[in-house]
Amino acid sequence: MEFDTVIFDLDGTLVDSLEDLTQSVNIVLKSEGYPLRTTEEVKRFIGDGYRLLMKRSLPLGSEDKVIDRCTSLFEEYYFKDIIGNTKPYEGIIDILKELNKRAIKIGVVSNKKDDATKEICRFFFTPYIDIAVGDNPKRKKKPAPDNVYEVMSKLKSSRDKTIYIGDSDVDVKTAKNAGLYCIAVTWGYRPKEILEKEKADLIIDKPSEILTLL
């Protein structure tokens, strides 16, 4: 396959941020007097932005004003130490280095807030990633293709030369909505069965498999 651009999801694809997200969720729940959530529960809730993460973490039927307040609290706690225990998955840095050597353009599109997305990418991936875009008021978040199109526009990339790589059903839907070839990864936050159900073009189990396509 002849590709010159790769667009990655962030959480669950490039970095493992589950511990930090779980910690911030539970700080909010504890402060509000609600039952805490396990890491596995938070893992299932990730992928659709902070508000839905908190809505899913709160007791069923929580009012919108409660969800909004808890989302604001979550952002406050999470942004205090956004790197914390977050780290790139094993092998990811080597893959990005190799993609750079091959003159492949690299973008990131996340449903994490835009500032947080840019900060994590700056901290871990500054030499390798050309552009990172997160959730912001200007465009619809994934699975809408808006932010993917924004990245492609900035990179001057075309659909037929771009692949999208992510770990969730949201990512597969995003790629399809954008008209891109989709690679789903199994090392992230969704089981392989979900990725198969969404009919990703290809499912891989380790980062090194990315290079065989390029």
What does this structure look like?
The chain has 2 domains: 5-16 and 86-213, HAD superfamily/HAD-like (Rossmann fold); 18-80, DNA polymerase, domain 1. It is 46% helix and 16% strand. The protein has 10 helices and 8 strands. The strands form 2 sheets. Strands 5-4-1-6-7-8 form a 6-stranded parallel β-sheet, with helices on both faces. Strands 2-3 form a two-stranded antiparallel ribbon. Helix 1 (18-31) packs across helix 4 (64-80) and helix 3 (50-57) crosses helix 4. The longest helix has 17 residues, at 64-80. The protein is globular, with a radius of gyration of 17 Å. The termini are close together.
Keywords:
globular, 46% helix, single chain, Rossmann fold, two-stranded antiparallel ribbon, 10 helices, 6-stranded parallel sheet, DNA polymerase, domain 1, 2 domains, 214 residues, alpha/beta
Topology at a glance:
Elements: E1 5-8, E2 15-16, H1 18-31, H2 39-45, H3 50-57, H4 64-80, E3 87-88, H5 92-101, E4 105-113, H6 114-125, E5 131-135, H7 146-155, E6 162-166, H8 169-178, E7 181-185, H9 192-197, E8 202-204, H10 209-213
Parallel strand pairs: 1-4, 1-6, 4-5, 6-7, 7-8
Antiparallel strand pairs: 2-3
Helix pairs in contact: 1-4, 3-4
Short characterization:
This protein has 214 residues and is of the alpha/beta class.
CATH architecture of the largest domain: 3-Layer(aba) Sandwich
Shape: globular
Q: What is the rounded distance between the termini?
A: 6 Å
Determine the structural class based on helices, strands and strand pairing. Answer: alpha/beta
Task: Return the CATH topology of the largest domain.
Answer: Rossmann fold
Number of domains: 2
Give the name of the CATH superfamily of the largest domain.
HAD superfamily/HAD-like
What is the string of SSEs from the N terminus onward? EEHHHHEHEHEHEHEHEH
Q: Which regions are unreliable across 5 or more consecutive residues at pLDDT < 50?
A: none
Number of helices: 10
Strand order of the largest sheet: 5-4-1-6-7-8
Characterize the main sheet: 6 strands, parallel
Strand content: 15-25%
pLDDT average, as an integer?
95
Total E-strand runs: 8
Rg = 17 Å
Provide the helix percentage. 40-55%
What would CATH call the class of the largest domain?
Alpha Beta
